[in-house]
């Protein structure tokens, strides 16, 4: 009898999200919600897998892809796919899928929330109350920066960047953006202005990074870029940690070269609890939760399961990554 195709899922997901897979395939998953699958288990499971449903924290490199003699598809539960070696996938005719669109608004909500939290010192203020430090109302108590009518600069005006810009229009902000390619339709729709990277970082009160992590974007926010920003600038990163030189960011925040930062992503994740950035009051740090609403995460799981089933049954997946 022909064996059922085998799918390995690298993290414990709610069984309900996978129902459609259980009918036609053999499915197993790493039984932890919070800890990544160990490398040796991933390699062993991949040896017999026709499909992998992976997390952005799994390194799907040449070694993993070559271990999968019958591997046909890798569905990543994320829109970013910098954790996957696309070159090897292409050489081996392995389809790679991601989860664009379904997470756009949720991630833009979080990026704007991070911007607001850093600007208005929300986390610091909430801790101040809980720690019993609030003794009286005072005129400049925890005074932050205005958001309305300020200038936001979006580096990476893609789907999430545009959704963020739409939110910024509600605050009557001036919108600058920088991409490799200009987007006239976004300029018209959102009143956004295309500028060079340098002009964006010099003119913006809020600088938000929403690019993918690539060889070109790695380290684009470094000592030189922080020096060019206003001293009152607030830097928000909701893209990937390695776009930032964290040591340079720390120095810029301590020296007052920039005012504050809101960070959802870090060079190493999870970030070490004793990392210097986490000692600063002017840093709002989140554990990479950009797309983390229950509704959106369920949609992302549905999209991954759809894509896997499609590839394994000879149909077109909805969201293949261009290889
Ligand atoms: N914090 C979180 O939890 C989440 C983080 N993300 C991150 O956000 C990223 C963006 O997602 P999404 O908006 O859906 O993707 P899109 O592909 O729609 O947008 C990416 C944008 O980045 C621009 N870009 C690419 N390379 C460069 C470059 N070298 N310099 C300047 N701009 C560049 C692209 O424009 P062009 O090609 O013209 O340069 C494009 O407009 C993801 O790749 C992921 O890393 C996504 C979801 C959640
Ligand atoms: O970081 C999250 C993603 O979807 O990419």
UniProtKB/TrEMBL annotation:
<dbReference type="GO" id="GO:0030267">
    <property type="term" value="F:glyoxylate reductase (NADPH) activity"/>
</dbReference>
<keyword id="KW-0560">Oxidoreductase</keyword>
<dbReference type="InterPro" id="IPR029753">
    <property type="entry name" value="D-isomer_DH_CS"/>
</dbReference>
<dbReference type="InterPro" id="IPR006139">
    <property type="entry name" value="D-isomer_2_OHA_DH_cat_dom"/>
</dbReference>
<protein>
    <recommendedName>
        <fullName>Glyoxylate/hydroxypyruvate reductase B</fullName>
        <ecNumber>1.1.1.79</ecNumber>
        <ecNumber>1.1.1.81</ecNumber>
    </recommendedName>
</protein>
<dbReference type="GO" id="GO:0016618">
    <property type="term" value="F:hydroxypyruvate reductase [NAD(P)H] activity"/>
</dbReference>
<dbReference type="InterPro" id="IPR006140">
    <property type="entry name" value="D-isomer_DH_NAD-bd"/>
</dbReference>
<dbReference type="Pfam" id="PF00389">
    <property type="entry name" value="2-Hacid_dh"/>
</dbReference>
<comment type="similarity">
    <text>Belongs to the D-isomer specific 2-hydroxyacid dehydrogenase family. GhrB subfamily.</text>
</comment>
<dbReference type="InterPro" id="IPR029752">
    <property type="entry name" value="D-isomer_DH_CS1"/>
</dbReference>
<feature type="domain" description="D-isomer specific 2-hydroxyacid dehydrogenase catalytic">
    <location>
        <begin position="8"/>
        <end position="321"/>
    </location>
</feature>
<dbReference type="Pfam" id="PF02826">
    <property type="entry name" value="2-Hacid_dh_C"/>
</dbReference>
<feature type="domain" description="D-isomer specific 2-hydroxyacid dehydrogenase NAD-binding">
    <location>
        <begin position="112"/>
        <end position="290"/>
    </location>
</feature>
<dbReference type="GO" id="GO:0051287">
    <property type="term" value="F:NAD binding"/>
</dbReference>
<dbReference type="InterPro" id="IPR036291">
    <property type="entry name" value="NAD(P)-bd_dom_sf"/>
</dbReference>
<dbReference type="GO" id="GO:0005829">
    <property type="term" value="C:cytosol"/>
</dbReference>
<dbReference type="InterPro" id="IPR050223">
    <property type="entry name" value="D-isomer_2-hydroxyacid_DH"/>
</dbReference>
